[in-house]
Design a protein that fits this description.
alpha+beta; Alpha-Beta Plaits; elongated
């Protein structure tokens, strides 16, 4: 079995349920040909270099899968017919490249989580400072009788 990198572009006009259905269809195509999905994730929404089927944007999906070399032609022919997929490309890669890409994704995910935690901490400290540290700024006056 070889390791493959599979990049495909989804139609941006699809709603979330339809996009999920297309992604599940692509997964089923790979599995039906004897492949196994290693990772599948949305990459990013980008402007296309040129219009494809009247679309100027697309949602890029990145997939790594293992499959026998004989399955690639069948996968390509079935994905070509899948509605919602604007373009795709399947490349042979090695396990080292896949591990490096996954490590980079993990690093980016950790950086985003750290930035979100820092932003939450900053917002909490600003809220506390605006509240006066949880203490009222002026002492309460005794009520007059």
């Amino acid at each position: 079995m070889n390791v493959y990198e599979f990049m495909f572009i989804l139609d941006p006009t699809l709603d979330d349920d339809a996009s999920l259905a297309v992604v599940e269809r692509v997964e089923a195509i790979v599995k039906a040909q004897g492949g196994s999905i290693v990772s599948l994730k949305p990459w990013e929404r980008r402007r296309l270099a040129y219009p494809i089927n009247g679309r100027t944007e697309g949602l890029y999906m990145l997939c790594y899968f293992d499959a026998p070399p004989s399955a690639i032609r069948a996968i390509e022919s079935r994905v070509r017919l899948a509605e919602g997929v604007l373009r795709f490309m399947i490349l042979v890669t090695d396990k080292e490249t896949r591990k490096r890409d996954q490590a980079a994704d993990n690093r980016r995910r950790e950086e985003r989580a750290a930035k979100a935690a820092a932003a939450a901490a900053a917002a909490a400290s600003q809220a506390e400072a605006a509240d006066g540290g949880g203490k009222s700024a002026k002492p309460a006056k005794p009520a007059r009788r």
